[in-house]
Design goal:
Layout lengths: L2 H20 L4 H8 L4 E2 H7 L5 H13 L3 E6 L5 E6 L1 H4 L2 H14 L3
Antiparallel strand pairs: 1-3, 2-3
Length: about 110
């Protein structure tokens, strides 16, 4: 395989991996909501239209496993759980804002 072909294959693998992390229907809205700072579970549920509880739980677990967010469970009654972007998650902000700008400019409404 030539060097150019090897680089293309590596780029495709990297892009595939990125999309596995942030390519889900709900991942980006969750991340976008957390750009404003730490949120409780109920705040996320309220601020993300049309997401159901089961899907929010699933996506939060996935984002936590990929080190995009942290989950902080406080020992209160009832339990309080806060979600915050990690440094890795914060680094997505300029990229996702650029996607938003592109969409606003080029997607017909």
């Amino acid at each position: 395989m030539t060097k150019n072909k090897i680089e293309k294959v590596e780029h495709k693998c990297t892009l595939h991996d990125v999309l596995e992390i942030v390519g889900g229907k709900w991942s980006i809205p969750i991340i976008f909501t957390l750009f404003d700072g730490t949120k409780r579970f109920s705040e996320l549920e309220r601020e993300i239209p049309n997401i159901n509880t089961r899907m929010l739980v699933k996506e939060l677990k996935k984002l936590q496993q990929t080190n995009i967010i942290t989950r902080d469970a406080l020992p209160t009654v009832p339990p309080t759980v806060n979600y915050t972007l990690t440094h890795k998650g914060q680094m997505l902000e300029p990229i996702l804002r650029a996607f938003l700008k592109w969409g606003e400019e080029f997607i017909d409404k």
